[in-house]
Amino acid sequence: MTSTQSKWLEAELKYDSRVVGKHEVVMTRGQGSVVWDETGRSYIDCVAGYGVANIGHCHPDVVKAIRDQAERLLVMPQSLPNDKRAEFLTELVGVTPAGLDRVFLCNSGTEAMEAAKKFAITATGRKRFVSMKRGFSGRSLGALAFTWEPKYREPFGEAVDNRNVDFVTYGNIEELRAAITDETAAVILEPVQGEGGVRPASPEFIQEARRLTQEKGALLILDEIQTGFCRTGKMFAAEHYGVIPDGMTLAKAMAGGVPIGAFVMTADVADRMPAGGHGGTFGGNPLAMAAGVAAIRAMKREGMAEQAREKGAYFMERLRAIQSPKIREVRGMGLMIGVELKEKSAPYIHALEHEEGVLTLQATPLVVRFLPPVTISREQIDTVVAAFERVLNSVNPRAERQAELAAAQKEEKQTE
């Protein structure tokens, strides 16, 4: 580590809240599917900002749009109409499923989920929700109520009120039927569970959720925060299932890297929210709107949904060809891919970064998650797969753990 890199890392560690675990690396720039650290080392990025950089880092159209807009206008509240906001809304509604033509603009996926929760309550007059086991809906107190994993909720105790949330096993139609009642306001559902292990829903499950919610007068809200904007091989994952929900939560890739969020819904849902019932200072700001216009147009012009479909199929084919007893399953949709191992994935993720220059994510303790930009090339995919195969063959988690324990014991003796 260079002295300059140590300085930047030291400063971040000194002043940061320490809530987020830090890698011992300082990233300074990115282009397409590659990022570079302060020393100039390159990495193939299969994290993409947790699925944000779908169109690649620093897409030239987005960079130009941000630069141009920054010279004109940076902020304007939604109470005052704006030309770039109108342009963005027109672009967004142009790609959403038919009937989802009303939009609440915000700044993140969690904010989009908070909005969805409030709109569902006012639209139905009900307060109960159905969410999924292994699902992830955000970290705010309201969104946490829909998040099943106890580790996210437990530190906050009763402040996270999920007494009105019924959790069902993802994919279990019988449990879904039992859970949706005349008191249900909405079913919250990821078409592909991300944090939960990269698990695509079956068509039967999604379609039955649509049928049951319509039958009971509840809403179907699809969480497309990670699956949206070409990630799964369609503009939205809902298109794979042939269903149109009552609403979708959107964020991440929608503006090419600039913070943004939205809840898109039917007019009937939107019109039942009282005036002033929800809001936000920075939602729909002109800078994010300009970036969003450029990003969506680039997705359409460059055929990124088709790219994700073709490259994702190739990526999974290559991963499934790896002959390793450590692999239990390769699964995914488009370029949202998970490799479930028979042992903890963390040592392999660490080795990919430090030994191979490949950035990946964990999704449950056993799954290595690959979320590369759609712009990733087949040659880069080949490089990633070869690197993954090497670390599968070289990493011995048990030996590494024993070495860590031995080092810790040695340090304890030295300090006694």
Features:
four-stranded mixed sheet, Aminotrans_3_PPA_site, globular, 416 residues, alpha/beta, PyrdxlP-dep_Trfase_major, cytoplasm, seven-stranded mixed sheet, [LysW]-aminoadipate semialdehyde transaminase, disordered C terminus, EC 2.6.1.118
Explain this structure.
This protein is α/β, with parallel strands linked by helices and 416 residues long. Helices cover 42% and strands 17% of the residues. It has 16 helices and 17 strands. The strands form 4 sheets. The chain has a 7-stranded mixed beta sheet, with helices on both faces. Strands 1-2-3-15 form a 4-stranded mixed beta sheet. α10 links the parallel β10 and β11. α13 runs parallel beside α15 and α14 packs across α15. The two termini are 30 Å apart. The C terminus is likely disordered.
